[in-house]
Amino acid sequence: LRVTHGLREDLWVWLSFLESLNGVTMWQDSLLIRDALQVHSDAAGSFGFGVIFGNRWCAQRWPDSWVSSRICRDLTFLNFFPILVAVHLWRADFQDRRVLFWCDNLSVVQVINRRASQSPRVMRLVQKFVLLCLEANISFTAQHVAGTDNSTTDALTCFHEDRF
Fold first, then answer.
1. Residues 43-90: pLDDT tens digits?
2. What is the pLDDT of residue 17?
């Protein structure tokens, strides 16, 4: 059995979770998809990202270091990033709940639903995301939304305050 770097990182996620597990499990408030909390996100390589949860939102431009490097060309990474930000920001609201992430990037939808990516850069985000969700008992899924139907988040991402 060959233990790759990626496998070691996956094992670290599980070890971190198991070390913090107190042995208590909780049923989620709702197991129905229709009762899931709704989060909408978007990212633009030349601008930044935006994420909306209910009447709360967050938007930020990409760091200059990302713009000058190849990171801003990795649209899967960029579109996954605001989803990780959402879990960090609203973790307490998401705890013991089901969360549905709406994203206009089909690759990100597949990464979230499979909990895996071929990209090491994206996989590092996935591992952080999964660990946060395990620790807070957040059940999650993602669905694709057409870019034309994601106009509010798109406006937020591109900092078009007049459209948001």
1. 998 899 999 999 999 999 999 999 888 899 999 999 999 999 999 999
2. 66
The whole-number pLDDT of residue 42 equals 93
Tell me how far apart the alpha carbons of residues 43 and 77 are, in angstroms, rounded to a whole number. Answer: 9
Question: Residue 19 — φ and ψ, nearest 5°?
Answer: -65, -30
Query: Model's pTM, two decimal places?
Result: 0.79
SS (H, E, C) the chain: CCCCHHHHHHHHHHHHHHHHCCCCCCCCCCCCHHHCEEEEEEECCCCEEEEEECCEEEEEECCHHHHHCHHHHCHHHHHHHHHHHHHHHHHHHHCCCEEEEEECCHHHHHHHHHCCCCCHHHHHHHHHHHHHHHHHCCEEEEEECCHHHCHHHHHHHCCCCCCC
- How far apart CA 29 and CA 63 sit, in angstroms, is 37
What are the tokens at 91? 């973790």
Nearest in space to 57 (alpha carbons), one of 128, 157, 146, 163:
157
b/e 24-51 (16+ beta carbons within 10 angstroms → b): eeeeeeeeeeeebbebbbbbbbebbbbb
Interval 39-54: pLDDT, tens: 999 999 889 999 999 9
